[in-house]
Write a structure and sequence with these properties.
single chain, 336 residues, alpha/beta, 27 strands, 16% helix
């Protein structure tokens, strides 16, 4: 079995899932956990409220105490409870399967690009994320009116297919200035700080200690000790025909308002305000400032110890050896 989880969630009036919450998703579950959760049933299935106490006991017998406590908690409520099991890492075929895979990434049990997310957009409904949870868009006006009639007010935080990661999973050792800017399915390494203007999309993120004040687009991974300056951006692969997977190596610096359209090696710097696309013409200089050749930026993809800058008079993009790697302030990350 590839993955399994006990979950709950929100359904619309037709019984379709709007979102699914898995407090303890498990990749590569043990035989004991499988036996406890599936209980001789195959695949995903609903759990009747009356069967939750017995399920909790089976989980304790299997040594899964945290999940057993979750089953006890769910037994005391009215929310629907179900088990979702993935036999293999095939393309997801339901909302629950997508949420389970995104939860595996955000809980650091899988890294971006490790899981098959083909076709996930078709499995995710567009949802109004509100102060009263997920609401189907066609049911929102009636819910808002009912709340007003009862003296309440429903605040709509976003209309999107993806929820905020922090409403589902908060990984250890991170700081997030604005939780609305980190989507479920983001992977934040231990020690990462995402400042208020930072953004991390799904299937993207950091491997360890990093400072994120810019945008990490879908599919982009940032290495240990790297700093994304305020307003900088990384080019994603969801639109625009860009088939290159962008990544940032270890101890790199993307200056404020810079942009990146190639994979960077380790210890590289992109000057503030410079947007480096794959087709950008780059003058490669030696240590004396003499031009060795002119290449497209894609030809320097993945090369370490480079500094990319723009000539202040001619505007030409130049590349030379990076004198030193950046160092993050340990006080900003060591106490997350």
């Amino acid at each position: 079995m590839f993955a399994i989880a006990l979950g709950t969630g929100t359904q619309d009036a037709q019984g379709q899932w709007l979102e699914c919450f898995f407090p303890y998703p498990v990749r590569n579950p043990s035989d004991a956990l499988l036996s406890a959760l599936l209980n001789d049933q195959s695949g995903s299935h609903a759990v009747d409220a009356g069967g939750l106490p017995a399920l909790a006991q089976r989980l304790r017998d299997a040594g899964e105490n945290a999940m057993a406590d979750a089953a006890d908690t769910l037994a005391g409520g009215s929310a629907p409870v179900f088990v979702t099991a993935l036999a293999t890492d095939d393309a997801p075929t339901s909302t629950a399967e997508v949420y389970l895979k995104l939860s595996l990434i955000s809980s650091r049990q899988a890294k971006p690009h490790e899981l098959n997310l083909t076709g996930l957009f078709a499995q995710l409904p567009n949802v109004a994320w509100t102060s009263e949870g997920a609401i189907a868009l066609d049911e929102l006006p009636a819910r808002q009116l009912k709340a007003r009639a009862e003296g309440r007010y429903i605040s709509v935080n976003s209309v999107d297919k993806f929820p905020r990661m922090a409403d589902y999973i908060v990984p250890t050792g991170v700081r997030i200035g604005d939780a609305s800017r980190v989507r479920l399915g983001a992977h934040l390494g231990d020690g990462t700080t995402v400042m208020h203007e930072g953004f991390v999309n799904f299937n993207a993120g950091t491997t360890g200690v990093s400072m994120v004040e810019g945008r990490i687009s879908a599919g982009v991974m940032v290495g240990e000790g790297s700093d994304l300056g305020g307003g900088c951006s990384t080019m994603g692969t969801l639109s625009g025909g860009n088939a290159i997977v962008i990544s940032v190596g270890d101890q790199c610096l993307l200056g404020a308002n810079s942009g990146l359209g190639i994979p960077l090696g380790d210890r590289c710097t992109v000057e503030s305000g410079l947007y480096l696309t794959a087709g950008s013409k780059v003058r490669v200089l030696n240590e004396n400032g003499d031009e060795l050749k002119t290449v497209k930026a894609r030809d320097l993809a993945g090369v370490s110890d480079l500094l990319f800058r723009r000539h202040s008079q001619t505007g030409a993009i130049e590349c030379l050896a990076n004198a030193r790697a950046i160092e993050l302030n340990p006080a900003l990350h060591s106490h997350n």
